Amino acid sequence: MGELIVIRHGQTEWSLSGRHAGRTDVALTEAGETAARALAPRLAHRRLVAVFSSPLSRAMRTAELAGLTSAMPDPDLLEWDYGGYEGLTAAQIREARPGWDLWRDGVIPGDAHPGEELAQVAARTDAVLDRIRPLLSEGDVAVVAHGHLARVLTVRWLGLDASASRLLGHPHPGTLSLLATEDGQPTISAWNVP
């Protein structure tokens, strides 16, 4: 049984400053490109049977620099649509909504972005996992995605409710995590590997 390799895109100006970048197409920084290139040796020895990526340029560019040139864009791997919180930091949101927690309180609709509920993000990750699970019998599958999406994907892999995503540390930009099975049970075999 292969492993599911979950890669968070490299650093962007928004990830560096803590701004919520859901659907805004933000480019990688130079450090983000360097981190993406550094993933290539870790991935080179893998027997990848498929590679999927968020269609946003920061994810597709990360895939390219990491040597995953066969990455197929998958809109289900887009980051959470943060709605009216797009481009804001958590501190800025909490100025208007003291005690706000993304996992508990969600987002508000925005002008350019309607926003998504956690259940909608979970439904998209479930669809991704339904497509990937059959492929794992042939080898490894890689996905290049975003921080919050990767957390939801991981807890859904584990069979947990999407709200359990708050229990995982945020994957750092330009890192990979490995989801596997042990004795037939889903596991996390590595998290946040540079």
Detailed description of the structure:
Helix content is 34%, strand content 18%. β2 (48-53), α3 and β3 (72-73) form a beta-alpha-beta unit. The protein is of the alpha/beta class. It has seven helices and six strands, in the order βααβαβαααβαββ. It has a six-stranded mixed β-sheet. The model has no long low-confidence stretch (mean pLDDT 97). α6 packs across α7. The chain has helices at residues 13-17, 30-44, 57-65, 90-96, 102-105, 118-132, 147-157; strands spanning 4-8, 48-53, 72-73, 140-145, 176-182, 185-193.
SSE arrangement:
Layout: E1 4-8, H1 13-17, H2 30-44, E2 48-53, H3 57-65, E3 72-73, H4 90-96, H5 102-105, H6 118-132, E4 140-145, H7 147-157, E5 176-182, E6 185-193
Parallel strand pairs: 1-4, 2-3, 2-4
Antiparallel strand pairs: 1-5, 5-6
Helix pairs in contact: 2-3, 6-7
Sheet with the most strands: spatial strand order: 3-2-4-1-5-6
Radius of gyration, whole Å: 16 Å
Low-confidence stretches: none
Number of strands: 6
**Into which percentage range does the β-strand content fall?**
15-25%
Summary keywords:
194 residues; alpha/beta; six-stranded mixed β-sheet; 7 helices; 6 strands; 34% helix; 18% strand; globular
Q: Quick gist of this model?
A:
The chain has seven helices and six strands, in the order βααβαβαααβαββ. The chain is of the alpha/beta class and 194 residues long.
